[in-house]
């Protein structure tokens, strides 16, 4: 071209490293909202709001994870005073640290996604942090498959958070989903069938209680000659008297007075009726398994997997609470590092978790007795930052 010589002195455009599959993922969705195939409203209504097992599972995990003590450190030391600690300690005017993280963990457990918004701020840290409702948030992917914006919709109005240079105004934390590139998979979705079974069994039990807490029997009419039937008036009167005087929990056990050739034939529980309670307990156990909670912690009978409650509680923290809290706090720490300009790490302080005290004591004792390890190696094994500058193993 004639004007190619004008471009010879231009600095070369730096190459951006990106996944080769990004454009394939973004095909057909670039710049548009990527909708996730989930119905959060229905799952939350039938599961969290309408099922006691699921409600307790979400509350138990969220409250336990939010109550974990946190530490802030970098490669050199742990901080007792830091702007990030102040921000996390009082993220906004309406919430403290525990309330903010409980809401965040709850959103992740219910929807598989958690969103935290950074409000304002100076050159170091934001002024406030707010947890956004996951069911109102939508991801807008770009041409390379990565999000270029988030859209928050309420009542027909939408606010778009644009992602550009610098720290993102929104931090998305999502659970692993093998079939979705932009949204996470929640335990609620995995337990949806068990939740339906448990709710159906509860409705059946309620219906049983409404009918005198036992299966109904049969009223048989025998005429004078062994034939014939009740007149319409007689039938209506019998139905009204049965509903008023013999049905419902209030009339349970009340003797029945029959006349005019009427005979009562009671009916016992069928084998299928007897299995309903076991079906309900089995469904409750499946819900607990989906959330990673030992069933005995939720009061579900018949589970003897763990020797005692203390062992089950320790497994609950080790296998469920700590992995979730570690992943979420690491994401929050990495996100806030984009505002501060320094690489800091937020993580649970395992030495202050009462449920893990016995394990931590054993680990500290085992590491301390290892004479072949240096002091720096021992600190690394215990999750502590490196030695302060100027100190050595001998110091």
Automatic annotation (TrEMBL):
<dbReference type="Pfam" id="PF04860">
    <property type="entry name" value="Phage_portal"/>
</dbReference>
<dbReference type="InterPro" id="IPR006944">
    <property type="entry name" value="Phage/GTA_portal"/>
</dbReference>
<dbReference type="InterPro" id="IPR006427">
    <property type="entry name" value="Portal_HK97"/>
</dbReference>
<protein>
    <submittedName>
        <fullName>Phage portal protein, HK97 family</fullName>
    </submittedName>
</protein>
């Amino acid at each position: 071209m004639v004007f190619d010589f004008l471009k010879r002195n231009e600095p070369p455009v730096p190459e951006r490293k990106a996944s080769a599959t990004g454009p394939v993922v973004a095909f057909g969705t670039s710049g548009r909202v990527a909708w996730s195939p989930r119905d959060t409203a229905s799952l939350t209504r039938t599961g969290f709001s309408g099922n006691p097992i699921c409600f307790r599972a979400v509350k138990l995990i969220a409250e336990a994870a939010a109550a974990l003590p946190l530490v802030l450190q970098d490669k050199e030391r742990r901080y007792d005073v830091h702007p990030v600690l102040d921000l996390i300690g009082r993220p906004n005017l309406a919430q403290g640290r525990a309330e903010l993280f409980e809401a965040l963990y709850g959103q992740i457990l219910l929807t598989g996604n958690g969103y935290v918004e950074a409000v304002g701020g100076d050159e170091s840290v934001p002024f406030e942090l707010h947890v956004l409702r996951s069911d109102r948030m939508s991801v807008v992917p770009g041409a390379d498959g990565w999000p270029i914006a988030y859209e928050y919709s309420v009542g027909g109005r939408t606010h778009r958070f644009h992602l550009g240079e610098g720290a993102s105004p929104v931090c998305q934390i999502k659970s692993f989903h093998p079939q979705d590139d932009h949204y996470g998979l929640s335990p609620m979705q995995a337990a949806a069938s068990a939740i339906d079974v448990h709710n159906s069994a509860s409705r059946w039990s309620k219906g049983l209680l409404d009918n005198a807490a036992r299966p109904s029997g049969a009223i048989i009419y025998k005429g004078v000659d062994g034939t014939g039937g009740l007149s319409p008036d007689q039938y209506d009167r019998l139905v009204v008297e049965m509903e008023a005087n013999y049905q419902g929990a209030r009339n349970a056990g009340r003797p029945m007075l029959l006349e005019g050739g009427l005979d009562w034939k009671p009916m016992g529980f069928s084998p299928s009726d007897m299995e309903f309670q076991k079906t309900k307990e089995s469904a409750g156990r499946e819900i607990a398994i989906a959330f990673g909670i030992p069933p005995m912690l939720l009061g579900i009978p018949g589970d003897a997997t763990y020797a005692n409650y203390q062992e089950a509680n320790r497994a609950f923290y080790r296998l469920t609470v700590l992995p979730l809290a570690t992943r979420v706090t690491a994401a929050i720490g990495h996100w806030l590092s984009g505002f501060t300009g320094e690489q800091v790490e937020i993580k649970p302080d395992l030495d202050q978790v009462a449920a893990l005290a016995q394990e931590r004591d054993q680990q500290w004792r085992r590491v301390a007795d290892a004479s072949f390890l240096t002091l720096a190696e021992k600190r690394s094994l215990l999750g502590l930052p490196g030695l302060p500058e100027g100190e050595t193993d001998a110091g």
